[in-house]
Amino acid sequence: MKQKVVIKVSFNGEKKSRTKVMQAAVSAPGVESIAFGGEDNDQIVVIGDSLDSVNLTCLLRKKVKFAELLSVSSVDEKKEEEKMTEPGVQPMVWPTYQAGVPQYYYTIVRDNRDETCSIM
Predict the structure, then answer these.
(1) What's the rounded Cα separation, in Å, for the pair 48 and 50?
(2) End-to-end CA gap in the chain
(3) Where is the HMA domain (predicted)?
(4) Residue 44: which region, alpha, beta or left (left: phi > 0; alpha: psi -120 to 50)?
(5) C-alpha pair distances (Å), 47 with each of 5, 6, 8, 66, 72
(6) Which of 18, 50, 70, 97 has the fewest CB atoms within 10 Å, i.e. the most exposed one?
(7) What is the pLDDT of residues 24-57, one digit of tens each?
(8) Contact between 47 and 99 (Cβ < 8 Å)
(9) Which of the 8 DSSP states describes residue 88?
């Protein structure tokens, strides 16, 4: 089941803290997409399958010292499918080709039956 988790994070005016938040959120298992939202972009919106929202919030607290879990809600998958199937846009699928020419190895087997003893 897909979930949408909204977490309020304070950045303390540091530019690197946004990068820390993104890296920490991506490292959590089950995360599919991340976006910043809210006023002053102080909220992080995480969408994923079977997310542990409490674990994610604690992980963000370790990185930026303040993170507050605002909401957890389920995402309706039917709305996402409708967005994906627009009438004018079709995905392009490229065929895959094998690189190179296959190599065949052969050996010559000689018939040694004419000789009486092969050891000597």
Answers:
(1) 6
(2) 77
(3) 2-72
(4) beta
(5) 6, 9, 15, 20, 10
(6) 97
(7) 888 888 898 999 888 888 889 999 988 888 999 9
(8) no
(9) S
**Residue 60 to residue 37: CA distance in whole angstroms:** 16
The token pair at 18 is 């946004």
In one-letter notation, the amino acid at residue 70 is: L
* Cβ atoms within 10 Å of 2's Cβ, excluding its own: 16
Tokens 């991506």 found at: 26
- Rounded CA-CA distance 31/3 in Å is 10
Return the bridge partners of 35, or none.
Answer: 45
Residue 62 has which token pair? 């370790």
